[in-house]
Amino acid sequence: MVPEQLQPRPDTWTGEPRPPRAPGFFKGDKPPKDQDSERDRSQWRKPSPPPGQGPVLEWYRHSRRYAIGMGVADSMVIGILIGFRQGFDYDWLSIPWMWLFLSATGLGMYGTFRLVDPAVGVDWLKVGRAWVLLYELTDIKVRHRGMSMHLDLKDSGVRKVQVKVDELQEDRDMWDIVYNGLLHSVVTNGATTNWAAHSFLWRSPKSWSESLPLTMLERVP
Fold first, then answer.
1. Contact 118, 127 (CB under 8 A)
2. Can you name the residues that pair with 79 across neighbouring β-strands?
3. Domain ranges of the chain
4. CB atoms within 10 A of CB 79
5. Which range scores top for mean pLDDT: 86-100, 131-145, 182-196?
6. In the chain, how many H helices and how many E strands?
7. What pLDDT does 213 receive?
8. N- to C-terminal Cα distance for the chain?
């Protein structure tokens, strides 16, 4: 692939034209935004853009109801596992500090779903307070941590962002914007990637992987 074959970079302020649907998306069963009960649609919770950057185009945060449900479910699963190890004897529930333990695990799970709020503009990605310029990335890595796949990104300003791919794909439009920036950074700027990024990000029925020169890739030990 050469720079002339890339999709155009959208206007910084209008966001047009929007990037086409990107490959590597595995949440095709997500409902439309206005029907997604797991999504927080409160505009006052919408993240602010990084200093000096264009407006927020897409963002995602789990709803409070969904996060509470996941916290309760997590506490119940842990309680069942403890009961199983105790031979299905649940007398331990009479111990006050065990209730504190279960409550703490539930709150931890609640926070996990509520604290992450990725947001994108035309040319930037922000996760929490960290952000990068998507079209000025110098390093793109996919890392497997635990059960999750993470994107580790670094831009020309030495800013860094680490984010789960799963969190970016909660919103299809957000994934399209991020992907377009990744592709531009590799093809135009020669951003380094690892083989995990190459095999995941540039796969599609038409084999995106064949369109990228292997000289741009860097094997990770």
1. yes
2. none
3. 64-115, 117-221
4. 18
5. 131-145
6. 5, 8
7. 40
8. 27
**Angle, nearest 10°, between helix axes 64-85 and 96-115?**
140
pLDDT, residue 60, reads: 87
CA 88 to chain centre: 38
Residue 132, number of CB atoms within 10 A of its CB = 27
pLDDT in tens, 2-23: 565 677 788 877 788 888 888 7
Residue predicted with more confidence, 10 or 24: 10
Burial of 221 (0-12, 13-18, 19+ CB in 10 A): exposed
pLDDT at 98: 80
CA distance 154 to 68: 33
User: Looking at the chain, which runs of residues are DSSP E strands?
Assistant: 58-59, 119-120, 124-127, 130-133, 137-145, 148-155, 160-164, 192-193
Q: Which residues pair with 155 in a beta bridge?
A: 137
Topology (CATH) of 117-221 = PH-domain like (2.30.29)
| 44-66 exposure pattern, b = at least 16 Cβ within 10 A, e = fewer | eeebebbeebbebbbbbbbbeeb
Q: Which DSSP letter does residue 6 get? A: S
State how far Cα 204 lies from the chain centre: 19
